[in-house]
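During the second half of the funding period, the structural biology subgroup turned its attention to how the target accommodates small molecules. The most pressing case was pyridoxal-5'-phosphate, which had performed well in the primary screen but for which no bound structure existed. We therefore specified the complex as follows and requested a full 3D prediction, including the ligand pose.
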Amino acid sequence: MPSEEFRRFGHEVVDWIADYLADPASRRVLPECAPGDLRRQLPAAAQEHGEEMQRILADFRDTIVPACTMWNHPGFHAYFSVSSSGPGILAESLIAALNTNGMVWKSSPATTELEQVVVDWLRQWLGLPQCFGLIFDTASQSTLHALLGARCKADPESRERGATANFVVYTSAQAHSSVEKAAMALGFGQRNVRKIAVDESFRMRPELLRAAIGEDRANGWKPLCVVATVGTTGTSSVDPVPQIADICEEHALWLHIDAAYGGFSALVPECAHLMNGCGRADSLVTNPHKWLFTPQDCSVLYTKHPEALRNALSLVPEYLRTGAGDAVNFMDYSIALGRRFRALKLWFIMRYFGREGVARILSEQVRMTQALARKIEADQRFELCAPVPLTLICFRRNGSDEDNQALLDRLNASGTAFFSHNIVNGRFMIRWAIGNIHTTEHHLSRLWEMIQHA
Ligand SMILES: Cc1ncc(COP(=O)(O)O)c(C=O)c1O
């Protein structure tokens, strides 16, 4: 593409993005389409000859966008409500333009060194002790790497010999499925994942954890690792990390914290206590793409034992030898060789908002959520189904599960909001996740009225 053409369409694309971000609420959150609708509109094979950029952009606007779920919409309250922000979007364009690959230091020194700098900045924001950090795409990958590090620390031979069968991973019944998946992928097997029961606030019960470890030891299993969560997906519950850390120390187990969503609570003065004890963990994951307005994808893994990850994964073929002395080569710590320049978008975001700016936005979201939770609690027709420590409200209306499913379907069909659901303790509940940078108290009040009428 000649640079003048790039400039012309670049301006057009930036204009489109600016208009879109100026008013994301003017669109439906959930598209009106059925499975297969978009595919039927697209050719089954790519065309032989190149096309005009104008036509490609027109198809993007007219065909692709209407089939997108609008994650940047202020009424997006499903899953965890995440959003991208201007500085992150601009950085993504520059990342694509530079197209660096930070597999080794030499393949792009800035890609490695900026990553070292920004993960350390973020570590300081989260109040964690000095440790090694690196960026992955998702929390699922970060947790997979954490468990791999735990295994290699406990059983260095596993690298050559392969896995042994009897390592056990402990997590709560409310943990994200990525923990179990990591155990499956690493060959521990689902049977070797103990899902410890939770208390009435959906937090792992430490006394049951201790008992399970004791029982496994007595039966010849090898307890390896405990995964605690700060901000579970189902209800945003926070496991009692200090007590879990005591048990891990007693039994010399690796403690991994899944703070994919909840990690940023460290920035909110009223919530910072939720991260108590996290500094004692052997590893911790947090996702800037969840609650730091970073475009997908960006997940940061911290660990105090980088040598365990390195022993598990370093494998240097001749063509990747660099002779760059003691420079860090991130390929030594990850399954993937290639490494996107994700650090650049984190750098843009952390500089643009500053710690104070992020803290102000997150605190306001926590405040809005708490105010809304109180309104729901005060309405006799509704009930809160779980405590609200952060920015997720789990609620249901009076009536059956079917009534609640029908309410959810009606709300989602409206096009103005998108909620997801969960079943906890056998009961259906609607998850109202708040955390989108575009959501204001006004949006929440209007939605609450809509729910009351619905
Ligand atoms: C607590 C928690 N952990 C892990 C994950 C997995 O995140 P990812 O999509 O980055 O793998 C999620 C996703 O929502 C989550 O809520």
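Two results from this model are relevant to the next phase. The radius of gyration is 23 Å. The chain has two domains: 1-44+62-84+357-454, 101-340.
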